[in-house]
Amino acid sequence: MQARIYVTLKQGVLDPQGEAVRHALGAMGFDGVHGVRQGKLLDVELDAASRDEAEARLREMCEKLLANTVIEDFRVELL
Amino acid sequence: MQARIYVTLKQGVLDPQGEAVRHALGAMGFDGVHGVRQGKLLDVELDAASRDEAEARLREMCEKLLANTVIEDFRVELL
């Protein structure tokens, strides 16, 4: 089974990486860029008896390893 | 205007980061994970006179800075 996981910073959490990208874009002449927030995406291929089982296992993977749930949100999308 | 950019490794390009995540998941007892490929997502807020202009500018940002087009693909999604 194929899934895509999206990991993004929670609202209100500062994103120095995104800010650095924004400044770099500005320095390259791309004006009018008000905000850049950077996140992760993970394409995972795994065995699962059902879509529900896959979703549950992927959520557990996020909670235990793939996302820092103190500052990040995650979303699991089964493909 | 709000947009989300997805940057992923091209097919065939090795992903040591994804492999490291896969091994870590295995070590934590998540078996049956056959592949993990890691990418980036960027949420961008920018001024643009039209959706076409926004798309064109975002594609140019990807080609010039946000993606390494030798090994990465990118996709622009206007929200």
Q: How would the blueprint of this fold be written?
A:
The structure is a homodimer of 79-residue chains.
Chain A: E1 2-9, H1 16-27, E2 33-46, H2 51-66, E3 72-78
Antiparallel strand pairs in A: 1-2, 1-3
Task: Please describe the structure with a list of short key phrases separated by commas or semicolons.
homodimer, alpha+beta, Mth169, Chain: A, elongated, purine biosynthesis (chains A, B), ATP binding (chains A, B), PurS-like_sf (chains A, B), Phosphoribosylformylglycinamidine synthase subunit PurS (chains A, B)
Describe the structure concisely for a colleague.
By secondary structure, chain A is an alpha+beta fold.
Structure characterization notes:
- Chains A, B: This is Phosphoribosylformylglycinamidine synthase subunit PurS.
- Helix content of chain A is 35%, strand content 37%.
- Chain A has 79 residues and is α+β, with helices and mostly antiparallel strands.
- Chain A has a single domain (2-78), classed as Mth169, Chain: A (2-Layer Sandwich), CATH 3.30.1280.
- The longest helix of chain A has 16 residues, at 51-66.
- The first copy, chain A, is elongated.
- The N and C termini of chain A lie close together (8 Å).
- The model of chain A has no long low-confidence stretch (mean pLDDT 97).
- The A-B interface holds A 6, 8, 18, 21, 24-25, 28, 30, 32-48, 57, 60-61, 64-66 and B 6, 8, 18, 21, 24-25, 28, 30, 32-48, 57, 60-61, 64-66.
- Strand 2 (33-46) of chain A pairs antiparallel with strand 2 (33-46) of chain B, so a sheet runs across the interface.
